[in-house]
Amino acid sequence: MRSDPILLPTEAGLYCPEGGFHIDPLKPVARALITHGHSDHARFGHGAVMATAQTLDIMRLRMGEGFAGSTEIAEGETRIGGVTVGFHPAGHVLGSAQIAVTRGDCRIVVSGDYTRQPNPTCAPFQPVPCDVFVTEATFGLPVFRFPDPATQTAKLLASMAEFPERPHLVGAYALGKAQHVIALLRQAGYDAPIAIHGALKTLCDYYIAQGVDLGALVRATAEEVPAQLVVAPPSAFASPWVQRFRDPVICFASGWMAVRARARQRGVELPLVISDHVDWPALTGTLAELAPAEVWVTHGAEEGVMRWCELAQIPARPLRLVGYEDEAEE
């Protein structure tokens, strides 16, 4: 068996020497393979970028046409130098993918960010047999056990029925979470117009163009917003924009809302535990299902996952890639 590594951690991120590319690099590189469009994975200025068509579209929408020197749509399996790469659905946001890198009979799967709960806005996670699985650990502690998202939308709708005179403002990140929350509400039968902050319009329009049913959306720009429910990026809650709403119910949709102290710190009246990441049971369940020969851990609570792997007798290593934000756009 060859001893030279297929992937190795560098200052710029995971690097494939035989393919001459990085995966989700932390700084501009000659060639980058990108798992999804969140800014802690997809950055400006690479010489060449390969990603799914939807991720490339999202990068253009967020960073402009000149975000990279050249782009290539990932379709099926592609030979790059001495390795074969394949992109497989991750279930995180629209266009998100796991990247499998294969050399001979050894395959490494870099999952990026992923979830196992059904998400009506994107393709579900596809388990890919592998020798090494690179997992995120954003919520890699036993305390994180997420409820069925339907219970959280039911909680929101019950609050709206109880307080019909109060606008409900839901904080949700612009890419993925905002559209996820809106789609869940539509699945729950809520068909009234939903107001969105202007910062969400471009990506909501793109999701709709890709066939995601978000129902009737209106802009939350007028002094009198014609909707009881308003979705906005978290940054808007610290701006004068929020002052136009009289006695609002402040809500926030995030896996972090499972921690009451986080909700209190943000002044959240109605926490909604809705995540686009794996919780502890889903993370450990995925590792048990895949049964890789080795696990690499990054993005978050690496120590908790390392300890679980030790008890499960699965060799594991922390990547400790500096520069990835702790669920910057969960």
Can you characterise this structure?
- The structure is a single chain.
- The chain is α/β, with parallel strands linked by helices.
- It folds into 2 domains: 8-143 and 277-318, Metallo-beta-lactamase, Chain A (4-Layer Sandwich), CATH 3.60.15; 149-272, Rossmann fold (3-Layer(aba) Sandwich).
- Helix content is 22%, strand content 26%.
- It contains 7 helices and 19 strands.
- The chain has helices at 53-63, 149-162, 177-187, 201-209, 260-265, 280-290, 302-311; strands at residues 8-10, 13-16, 21-23, 31-33, 46-51, 68-73, 77-80, 83-89, 97-103, 106-110, 132-137, 168-171, 194-196, 217-219, 229-232, 249-253, 270-272, 294-300, 316-318.
- The strands form 3 sheets. The protein has a 7-stranded mixed sheet with strand order 7-8-9-10-11-18-19, with helices on one face.
- The chain starts with 7 loop residues before the first strand and ends in a 12-residue tail after the last strand.
- The model is unreliable at 323-330 (pLDDT under 50).
- This is Putative mRNA 3-end processing factor.
- GO terms for molecular function: RNA endonuclease activity.
- InterPro entries: MBL, RibonucZ/Hydroxyglut_hydro, Xnuc_lig_assoc.
